[in-house]
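To fix ideas, we give here one paired sequence and structure record:
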Amino acid sequence: MKKIGVVLSGCGVYDGSEIHEAVCVLLAIDRAGCEAVCMAPAVELTVIDHLTSLETGEKRNVLVEAARIARGSIRNIAEVTASDLDAVILPGGFGAAKNLCNFAVKGAAASVNAEVTRLVREMATAGKPIGAVCIAPVVLAAVMGREYSPVVTIGTDAGTAAEIEKTGAHHQICPVTDFVIDEKNKLVTSPAYMLATRISEVADGIDKCVKEVIKLI
């Protein structure tokens, strides 16, 4: 059974992984007959009240929060290597741009969590497929931009696309239920909630994205 890593960034759209996107990724992996290997970095995050969209003043551990989505079956990303996986997928949510990296603040000058960087680089070096949805492609741009010149999409947002281009990556406009494939680098990306107004649109795009990632294995 193929093992697909799922890199989570917490739990909740404003301060972690977007739950709809994460669940759609996990469902698509399971329906494809593959095993999802959930993981997250063990770092502290600022908590956002999802009712008011305001900071609560609390901090919570990304790995502990992501375990909610994974139903407790999750690993510290520091303990996972490319040799453990056949592919890896990053769901979106603001945590991808805030906890996995600081693109939300730094844009093209973003730095990426060291363990996330390591795993992405290991996968790229091994020629293993990587998928990313919603805002998560910025992580790939920040890690791979200068060396690999990857092609990714976050949909149609011009400001985010411009920052992606500054990293050395290339942005391609894409509709919500479609995806972009970078055949050379084995990357598959899809807009999800960067464009979606309905969960069904998210599910359609992610299902296609996951299937293409698996085809590239």
In short: The mean pLDDT is 97. The radius of gyration is 15 Å. The helical segments are 19-31, 62-69, 94-98, 103-106, 114-126, 137-148, 158-166, 199-215. DSSP finds eight helices and eleven strands in the chain.
